[in-house]
Each structure stands twice: as structure tokens, then as C-alpha cells.
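Hey, resending since the last one bounced:
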Amino acid sequence: MQPFDALILIFTFAFGLCVGSFLNVCIFRIPREESIVTGPSHCMSCGTRLKWYELIPVFSWLVQGGRCRHCKAKLSPQYPLIEAINAAGWILCFFIKGFSIEFFLGCGLFSALLTLSVIDARTMEIPFGINVFIFVLGLVRLFTDLGNWPLYLIGFAAVSGFFLLVYLITGGRGIGGGDIKLMAAAGLLLGWKNILLSLMIAAIVATIVHLIRMAVVKAGKVLSFGPYLSIGIFIAFLFGDIIIKWYIGLLTGA
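The C-alpha cells again:
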């Protein structure tokens, strides 16, 4: 590894942890309709404003033994987990995409998908603002690859159009409005081939995981589809072209 790559890797990991800390703020505040940009960070139990040294990603949680320094209430392990997962996702983007526009798009996409997955799993709602953010990433992808603009515009409608039809036929019982917007925004970013692939991956993962959950923890038939769509979208973003090429080769024997 070249020194420049090592430096970028270290910075990516550190900044990924910091952004992960902000994602925790989003995860806790967005469902409560609280501002994510105003209001200081505070203990969720006693309300005490946190000092800067209590906000160091992962490290502060470990040093404090997973408890508030003031009221000794247990702090959710979600804090270090989200921070570490986000940093790991960013590192993966760097290894797969290198230092490129797709690396930056991938980091933004991963953080958005991670946030909406946790929120959707808890509330069965995908925040509109997160879908808007992914849509903006899609616009960036479109304008940095204008020669392939039909690929992205078709992607915008390829899956979201199908979801919208299901929504209208079932009166909103078959799919959620947030899922429609998510696949429209992600389709603009991925293009039609990869957004279709992401749906296939999501359906397979959702079927396997939810059947296991129904058998083991007696989960109901209704599920939050956002986390599974997020898995499919991110896998398709990183490996979609490779998977599609392999699949076509498998069919054609090439």
C-alpha cells in the first residue's frame, strides 16, 4: 500500500467514526421530530450536556464502561456499533472503489442506508429527508456520467414504478411509500440494471432472514423492507457490475 493510500485509509476510518456518531443523533432524533443540527448532545436518561471528551467515537463509550458519567445509566451499545459499522462501510468503499467519485458516493450512500435501516426497523417508516439525500447522490452520479444518462433515468422508474403500482393496487398495504421513494432515488444512483439486481438481492435476503425470525422469535408476517432493500442497494453499488457479468456468463457459457 502506498503512503498516500494509507493516509486516506486512516482519515477515512477516523472520519467514518465521527460521521457514525452523527448518525446516532439522526437515529434517535429524527423519529422524535427533533432537530439534528441544533441542541447539544446530552444523556438520554438525565439530560446532562456531554463534554467533548465524552463524545469521542467508540473510545468514550468503552472508557466509561457503557454508562453515563453523571447518572450511571447504561448507554446503548448502539452508539459504538453504529460508529464502528459506518467506519467499516467506508473502508470497504475505499478498497472496492478506490479514491474516486464513486468512493465518496458510496460513503454517503452507506451512511444513509445504515441510518434509514435502523429507523425503519424500529418505526416501519423511512424518513423522507434520507431519501432526498440519496436522490442528491443520484443527481451527482447522473451529472458525472452524462453519457449514460438513460441508464440512470430508467433506473429511477424501473423498480419504483413497479412498487407504485403495487401500492395503488393494494391501497398501501403491499408496500410503503418510503420504499417507493428509496428505490426511485437509489435507481437514479445505480442505474436500471443494478437497481433490479438490488431488488432481487433484497427479496432473497428478506425471505431467508424473515422466515428464520418467524421460526425462532415468532416474528409476525409484516416486516420492515427498508433494511433488506438497503442491503441489496449497497451490494449492487459495490459489486453489481461483477455479479451481472458473472450471471450473464453463466447463462451464455462464456
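The chain is about 70% helix and 0% strand.

Sorry for the duplicate.
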